[in-house]
Write a structure and sequence with these properties.
Length: 123
């Protein structure tokens, strides 16, 4: 039972590292198209075709499932403190794999819609 709690705790820590907050970039919309900045850059918009999946757009189910499976597999490797490291690494790697697998499935099975994406262009 103690090994299970240790594995669970390590898996949760791995998931926390996976979902760590990253820096947010400035976002622009169609209303900003053509906007110019002092550094010579401007906002350009273009239409792109994207998959529109109403359920689980952030791929949380695939990430969580992959992290649990990866953590359990990692726990089977090594011994002592090496087992903890392998469990954490397995959870992180499994989460990434699970997220990618779910993303490919959603891409293949989802609806396609056209969206306007805008970004700041430096020239």
């Amino acid at each position: 039972m103690r090994i299970f709690h240790s594995t669970l705790a390590t898996t949760i820590v791995g998931l926390g590292m996976l979902f760590a907050a990253s820096a947010q970039a400035q976002t622009y919309g169609p209303q900003d198209e053509g906007r110019r900045f002092n550094d010579g850059s401007r906002v350009e918009c273009r239409k792109v075709e994207v998959a529109n999946n109403a359920r689980d757009q952030n791929r949380i189910a695939g990430t969580a499932t992959g992290a649990v499976v990866g953590g359990l597999l990692g726990n089977q490797v090594g011994g002592g403190s090496g087992r903890k490291v392998a469990t954490a690494a397995g959870a992180v790697a499994g989460g990434l794999v699970g997220r990618n697998v779910q993303g490919r499935n959603q891409e293949r099975n989802g609806q396609r819609v056209v969206e306007t994406r805008c970004e700041r262009v430096y020239r």
